[in-house]
């Protein structure tokens, strides 16, 4: 079984500084970590490896410093690591990122692709599903529980107020929630191997087949107008009422907030 | 000359810190209070490779070095001196002499499971009448056919309650003095071997320090470590390495108590402002930090010397002497800066102060370290 895990190195904080001109991240001076949802994805892959003897390849697109995130993944137990890095990839939105990652994944053998639900520095939750679309694969997002039987995965897909139990045939792509598991620590031996025995494979623009126009800022249709920290959403309120009463409640609430 | 840590050492440090924060710190107060050996922590230490850090992979180790090992004991001890010494005694005093003096068969049989953390190790040299004067061993070993028969007792043995493998020193030829001492690898299950009473201690109270009793204890001939008569040399060399571990424990205690103090003085308000604003506090912190950093340099230097396979006996003695005294001084100041709260069990610094004291005593007292250091000057 071949598993490809897409990870992203993110600043270890929700207080992300942005370049006011381009709307992209300023990474300098902020400690970096593997994005928590992605780390859960990596742990899920390693659990499958422990059970079924899988090969786990981690893949990231990022600046050369993202090497450290890949070493950490190797130190946790991943078998191979690929860093997609090129100045031409810079400034990519989720569309260009997923195009680039999908192009890289086409070169690999895979039964399962795992991506974290969303990154704490962008919160889009788009890259994983877009990769699946571009590779023409079935996808299950928001995975909270995961098991495998033969060529099928058995998944609990989490929603705010309910869950789906899904059976999906591999090859497929899943996106994982941090709540899926508690990722293992790196081991001492794993860290030594990550630096002394294993190698990070670096792929640049020339190593993947992709249209020049699809890369980086140029290939990014998204224009960020403004970034802000998401306010905490209060839990919703449920009413078990008929339509007329429901309309009245909505009306009252909107009036109360001076919306109408 | 380079004081920078390599990328792998930095990543190890990051991992040690995360592990300590999540797995060690939450238990530190409880195991001290209950004088309980943290079996669950030892299992996790084994899983992540803490119990075989400086040994090659072919012997079940993590394939790292003595600096990586010293840093592990330091980070664990920042939160819990007990956890630090469990790793130190296991690694330096039991696994290391088998690695350095053992035959290939002994390494396969004992070092591999020790380094993997499947078995826990301990070391028995001290006796009721042979402490600093280690040459006064009264435990005897007599060769009878294919086995030795050991009789005697050992005291103050770290990890004894839970250890599976012990390195035991015993006299094989009393007339030869120190050259009549031999080292043995003794399994807990060997007939005639038993673990006696557990000491009630001032500090490192989660660490089980017990007596060992050997009554006609049968030890197979092939469990002699090194040659007959090499025991004293093996013990002294082993303690040289052990001192790096204890120095690291002391360093961790100093740093841990300093970290707690920095947090506390920023929060604690007296006379309308945080006590961090007072110059006395600032000067105390500056001294604590400087002592701790100086200890760190000595500890890392000694570990580096051992890694470079150059003589490091004096470096290890200096590191242990200085780090132990720094730990005592820094933890005492930490309690003082915490005031009345520091004297209670609520803040942890009094535990660190109690833990620190033993680092001036075990694996060679500070006086012994001074003897080792001055002997190298006066030879």
Describe the overall structure:
The complex is a heterodimer of chains A (260) and B (379). Chain A has one domain: HUPs (Rossmann fold, 3-Layer(aba) Sandwich). Helices cover 28% and strands 24% of the residues of chain A. Chain A contains 6 helices and 11 strands. In chain A, the strands form 2 sheets. A 9-stranded mixed beta sheet of chain A has the order 9-8-7-10-6-1-4-5-11, sandwiched between helices. In chain A, strands 2-3 form a two-stranded antiparallel sheet. In chain A, helix 3 crosses helix 4. Chain B contains 10 helices and 10 strands. In chain B, the strands form 3 sheets. Chain B has a 4-stranded mixed beta sheet with strand order 1-4-5-8. In chain B, helix 3 (66-79) runs antiparallel to helix 4, helix 6 (231-267) packs antiparallel against helix 7 (279-307) and helix 6 (231-267) runs antiparallel to helix 9 (349-359).
Write a concise synopsis of the structure shown:
The complex is a heterodimer of chains A (260) and B (379). With 260 residues, chain A is an alpha/beta fold.
- Low-confidence stretches of chain A at least 5 residues in length (pLDDT < 50)? none
Global geometry of chain B: globular
List the helices and strands of chain A in order. Answer: EEEHEHEHEHEEEEHEH
Distance between the termini of chain A: 57 Å
Order of helices and strands of chain B: HHHHHEEEEEEEEHEEHHHH
Q: How many separate structural domains of chain A? A: 1
Average pLDDT of chain A, rounded to a whole number, is 91
Task: Please report the number of helical segments of chain B.
Answer: 10
Total beta strands of chain B: 10
CA-CA gap between termini of chain B = 28 Å
Tell me the major beta sheet of chain B.
Answer: 4 strands, mixed
Count of DSSP helices of chain A? 6
Category from helices, strands and their pairing of chain A: alpha/beta
Question: How does the overall form of chain A come out from the CA principal axes?
Answer: globular
The side-by-side strand order for the widest beta sheet of chain B comes to: 1-4-5-8
Helix content estimate of chain A: 25-40%
Specify the helix fraction band of chain B: 40-55%
CATH homologous superfamily designation of chain A: HUPs
Largest interface: A-B, 16 and 21 residues
CATH architecture of chain A: 3-Layer(aba) Sandwich
């Amino acid at each position: 079984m071949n598993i490809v895990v897409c990870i992203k190195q993110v600043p270890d904080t929700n207080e992300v500084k942005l370049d006011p001109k381009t709307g992209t991240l300023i990474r300098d001076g902020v400690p970096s970590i593997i994005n928590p949802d992605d780390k859960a994805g990596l742990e899920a892959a390693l659990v499958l490896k422990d059970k079924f003897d899988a090969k786990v390849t981690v893949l990231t697109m990022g600046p050369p410093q993202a090497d450290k995130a890949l070493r950490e993944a190797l130190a946790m137990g991943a078998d191979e690591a690929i860093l997609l890095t090129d100045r031409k990839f810079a400034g990519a939105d989720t569309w260009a990122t997923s195009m680039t990652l999908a192009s890289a994944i086409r070169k690999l053998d895979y039964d399962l692709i795992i991506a974290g639900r969303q990154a704490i520095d962008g919160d889009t939750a788009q890259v994983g599903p877009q990769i699946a679309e571009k590779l023409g694969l079935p996808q299950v997002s928001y995975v909270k529980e995961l098991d495998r039987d033969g060529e099928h995965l058995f998944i609990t897909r989490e929603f705010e107020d309910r869950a789906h139990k899904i059976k999906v045939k591999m090859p497929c792509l899943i996106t994982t929630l941090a709540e899926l598991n508690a990722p293992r620590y790196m081991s001492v031996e794993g860290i030594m191997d990550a630096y002394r025995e294993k190698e990070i494979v670096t792929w640049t623009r020339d190593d993947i087949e992709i249209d020049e126009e699809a890369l980086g800022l140029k290939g990014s249709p998204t224009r960020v107008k403004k970034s802000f920290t998401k306010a905490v959403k209060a839990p919703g309120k449920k009413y078990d009422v008929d339509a007329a009463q429901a309309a009245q409640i909505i009306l009252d609430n909107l009036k109360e907030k001076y919306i109408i | 000359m380079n004081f920078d840590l390599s990328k792998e050492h930095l990543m190890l440090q990051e991992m040690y810190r995360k592990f300590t924060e999540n797995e060690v710190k939450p238990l530190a107060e409880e195991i001290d209070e209950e004088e309980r050996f943290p079996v669950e922590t030892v299992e996790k230490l084994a899983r992540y490779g803490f119990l075989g850090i400086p040994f090659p992979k072919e012997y079940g180790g993590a394939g790292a070095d003595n600096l990586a090992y010293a840093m592990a004991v330091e980070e664990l001890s920042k939160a819990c001196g007990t956890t630090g010494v469990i790793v130190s005694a296991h690694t330096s005093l039991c696994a290391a002499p088998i690695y350095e003096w053992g035959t290939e068969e002994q390494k396969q049989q004992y070092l591999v499971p020790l380094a993997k953390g499947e078995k826990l190790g301990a070391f028995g040299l001290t006796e009721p009448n042979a402490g600093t004067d280690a040459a006064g061993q009264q435990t005897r070993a007599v060769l009878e056919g294919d086995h030795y028969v050991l009789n005697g007792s050992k005291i103050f043995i770290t990890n004894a309650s839970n250890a599976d493998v012990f390195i035991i020193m015993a006299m094989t030829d009393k007339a030869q003095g120190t050259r009549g001492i031999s080292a043995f690898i003794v399994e807990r299950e060997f007939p005639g071997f038993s673990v006696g009473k557990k000491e009630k201690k001032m500090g490192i109270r989660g660490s089980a320090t017990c007596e060992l009793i050997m009554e006609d204890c049968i030890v197979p001939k092939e469990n002699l470590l090194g040659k007959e008569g090499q025991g004293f040399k093996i013990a002294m060399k082993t303690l040289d390495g052990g001192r790096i571990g204890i120095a690291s424990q002391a360093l961790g205690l100093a740093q841990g108590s300093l970290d707690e103090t920095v947090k506390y003085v920023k929060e604690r308000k007296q006379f309308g402002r945080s006590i961090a604003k007072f110059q006395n506090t600032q000067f105390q912190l500056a001294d604590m930090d400087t002592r701790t950093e100086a200890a760190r340099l000595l500890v890392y230097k000694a570990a580096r010397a051992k890694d470079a396979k150059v003589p490091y006996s004096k470096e290890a003695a200096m590191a242990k002497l200085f780090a132990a005294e720094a730990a005592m001084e820094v933890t005492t100041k930490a309690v003082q800066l915490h005031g009345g709260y520091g004297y209670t069990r609520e803040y942890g610094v009094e535990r660190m102060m109690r833990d620190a004291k033993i680092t001036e005593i075990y694996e060679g007292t500070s006086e012994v370290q001074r003897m080792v250091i001055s002997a190298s000057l006066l030879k």
